[in-house]
Amino acid sequence: MGGTWKGLILFAFQDGPLRFGELRRAVPGISERVLILQLREMEATGLLHREVHHQVPPKVEYSRTEFGHSLNTAMAPPGSAPPGGRTARP
């Protein structure tokens, strides 16, 4: 997984699905263009799922796939608690 922003974007999803505006606020310093390109790449590689809700105004939510979740867990800082609250034993 290359790129400066992908890790930060993936980390932003730890609390659940996000809309584009929420995601842009969660990753400070990223431009709208770069965020769009990164989201497209991450969707194409299977890290994220994009769901379009057909309503007025249009609503699009992004969420991690199982692959994205496992990658985010693998990238967690050493000693941090995984989901479920247990820490790894040495």
Can you tell me about this structure?
- Helices cover 40% and strands 16% of the residues.
- The chain has 90 residues and is of the alpha+beta class.
- Strand 2 and strand 3 form a beta hairpin.
- The C terminus is likely disordered.
**Helix-residue proportion:** 40-55%
Question: How many beta-strand elements?
Answer: 3
Number of helices: 4
Shape: globular
The structure class reads: alpha+beta
Largest sheet: 3 strands, antiparallel
Overall residue-averaged pLDDT value: 81
Q: Which regions have little confidence, pLDDT < 50, spanning 5+ residues?
A: 86-90
H/E order of the elements? HEHHEEH
Strand proportion: 15-25%
The largest sheet has its strands arranged as: 1-3-2
**What is the end-to-end distance?**
27 Å
**Rg on CA atoms, Å:** 14 Å
Feature tags:
disordered C terminus; three-stranded antiparallel β-sheet; 90 residues; alpha+beta
What is the topology?
Layout: H1 6-12, E1 18-19, H2 20-26, H3 32-44, E2 48-53, E3 59-64, H4 66-74
Antiparallel strand pairs: 1-3, 2-3
Briefly say what this structure is.
By secondary structure, the protein is an alpha+beta fold.
